[in-house]
Amino acid sequence: MQLLRASTLIAMFVLSACTTMQSDKALETQVSTSSAAELLPPRPHHKELVDLGPPVDLWDRIRRQLEFHTLHNARIGSAREYYLKQARYFELVGPRAERYLFHLVNEVEARDMPIEIALLPFVESAMNPFAISNQRAAGLWQIMPGTADDLGVRRDWWFDGRLDVRDSTTHALNYLESMNEDFDGDWLLTLAAYNSGKGRVQRAIKRNKSQGKPVDYWSLDLPRETRRYVPRLIALSTIVAFDQALEVSLPQIPNAPAFAAIDTAGQVEMLRAAELAGLELVELRSFNPGQLRWATAPNGDGKLLVPVSIAESLATTLAELPDSQRVTWQHYRIRRGDSLIRIAKNFDTQVGLLREVNNLNGNLIRAGDTLMIPDSAAWQQSLALAESGSTGVRRGYTVRRGDSLYEIALRFDVTIVDIISWNKLDPGRYLQPGQSLTLYLAGD
Question: Is 124 one of the catalytic residues?
Fold first, then answer.
């Protein structure tokens, strides 16, 4: 096995070396002349796998099922270098992967999809469930608002399923499976369609057919981002397969669940739940990024994700928690000129909620009366840190002449995807001297 891996790796690097002197344009346009079916290795059937004993860790479990790692061409080689040049990439995304990757692997295996699909959030969001693109794609799987609506993803004032780890994974995998049927089981075309849209890939296929050209992924004229997107996932497969030879230190991730879902037994403040769990609010938020407000929805599904080690005890505590200790209210004395809309905005709440808890039938309020308002101050204080995907310190940075995303990420030990997410940048546009960026840096 080691000899086979070594020979495969040597062949891969020889091919890569032959292409390193080519221009960027050549790297983008060079494609394999083989069909997608010829390029893909046979799918391993789990029942036919040799019994190697239990996996050492989650990476070992993934490594045993990889399918794309033997593919190589210049575009894949360039994508591999994209990751390898970010010296601390895996170290930085490791804490996120430790929270979410086991769940992704479980869900992908249950559907008998290529295991590489579980690595797709590395490409999409650097495993940051709070990531929001400049086009408003959100979450681990970067689901667009329109796509979310088509897929039936729950999105309301209290909750965004695109950010929720379980909901987003379920809907993203459903979407991928559906498109895979449309592309006759070709996963490379499916992945391209996930990135740029099914219609765009289908039009590219139709165009190639009319010109008598091959219609595999490598032969299609697709947007620049999509030409890089699929190779990056394949490159990750290669890095996981050959991590030691590539001198990549993958973060330690046990082959065990990091979280469990518990019933809240009614609406409860996130801060109250965190206190009862013995967690920092920012940590509870990291398991529940889909929760948008200071408390769970009054009529929601009543579920929270928490570390496995405390799930049973916290569920019992919440079940016994009286209503009077679930939500903290503050009293606000109405001033002249106030309106429900203005008060709701100031306190990050809803007009409808203010009406409900104060027994109001309409919008009429009187100066001097008192309103009950949910206390969301602590939640607001923790929100920025949680959404940064870091417990780090916020810092401003002004782009200098000659700066690139890669150089800034390397200088401050963050990932390129994080910089894009924090600043809602368009990855296809160049940074401009004088441009202001926000970074979240680890403390000393």
Answer: yes
Range name among 53-67, 75-89, 246-260 with the lowest pLDDT average: 75-89
Instruction: Tell which CATH architecture fits domain 2-241.
Output: Orthogonal Bundle (1.10)
**Closest by alpha carbon to 239, among 89, 43, 87, 80?**
80
- pLDDT (tens digit, 9 = 90+) per residue, 110-120? 999 999 999 99
Other CB atoms within 10 A of residue 32 CB: 19
Domain 329-374 has CATH 3.10.350.10: yes
CATH of 392-441, one of 3.40.630.30, 3.20.20.70, 3.40.50.12780, 3.10.350.10: 3.10.350.10
- Where exactly does CATH 3.10.350.10 map onto the chain? 329-374, 392-441
pTM for the model stands at 0.79
What stretch of H or E contains 398?
Answer: strand 393-398
Give SS3 for 377: helix
User: If you average pLDDT over residues 43-47, what whole number do you get?
Assistant: 44
Q: CA quadruple 229, 231, 232, 237: dihedral positive or negative?
A: positive
Distance CA 324, CA 267 (A): 11
Say which of 124, 269, 283, 387 is annotated catalytic. Answer: 124
Question: Cα(271)–Cα(284) distance, rounded to whole angstroms?
Answer: 9
- Of 252-256, 271-275, 277-281, 344-348, the range with the lowest mean pLDDT is 344-348
